[in-house]
Amino acid sequence: MDAGSATFDCAIIGGGISGLQGAIQLGRYGHRVGVIDGGTGRSTLCQCYHNVLGWPDGISGPSLRQRGKEHALRLGVEFIDDWIRAVEPAAEGFTLTGQSGHTYQTRRLLLATGIVDTIPEIDGIVPRLGLTVYVCPDCDGYEVKDRETIVMGAGKAGVNMATTLTYWTRRITYIHDDTEPFDDEHKAQLDKLSIPYVEARITRVISDDPSKFEGVELADGRVIRGERAFIAYGGNWVNSDIVNSLGVKLHHNHHVLVDPRTKATSVKYLWAAGDVVAHSEQVTIAMGDGSQAAIWIHKSLMSPSTFPEKWPDPSTATAQS
Fold this sequence. Notes:
By secondary structure, the protein is an alpha/beta fold. It has two domains: 3-117 and 236-316, FAD/NAD(P)-binding domain (3-Layer(bba) Sandwich); 126-232, FAD/NAD(P)-binding domain (3-Layer(bba) Sandwich), CATH 3.50.50.60. The protein contains seven helices and 17 strands.
């Protein structure tokens, strides 16, 4: 395929879980679908999803992505390795410009760009993500039930994570791994729940096995032991900037607002799904988002009058921060 002249019924920016699920659904309708992806994102880092139907022992993000891509390819979905740098309105749809210099024309657009977590530069963290080190208490709080757990974090995000995890375990140690002083109010929150805390920079994870977690070593040489860990440094980046020029309505934290029924954004012919949308960030929700958006994209392609000129206003929906 000459990517520089590609024209799609629907282009999907992002080849993660929601993007792939949307692509599969649209591929089953027989539409020409292009998934444009740079090969990064949360699902490339997570070594095990534990709460997916049919995978009681878990499945890694890379494995799930590969299976999804193979499924989509069987349905005629096209994959393009590129980073979209600009999205502009066209006569009916959009023109996308990639970092490669190629442009792509599409009648409909699904934004599935996700978010980027703040992962600290601590030796040994990345290989353990999803296995013994986690980022989401709703996804993986169960994994630390009654275990000795270390929360590595900073500021409000770190303290909130430590207090939230008391639902699962009282054996928590919080490490304030930040150059900023530890706030007295945050200390009081931890004291109230009898959560011990340490103020020190973390240098590395302790364990000879790259999948296991036995604790961390601090910059001053001290060792804090634990069986599992969560990271919570705040400052996650929502990948919604690419559609800012279209005037899409965003939540205050930059997540994209969508109509809860259709996943349509405030911009006509633009949908959003997955972690870039304002909701609880879970792989199973991302799958549902992708399918739901694809169904309504199909409806709009078959009968444009399904959506009147007054596009659904997602700002009336309740969005989580």
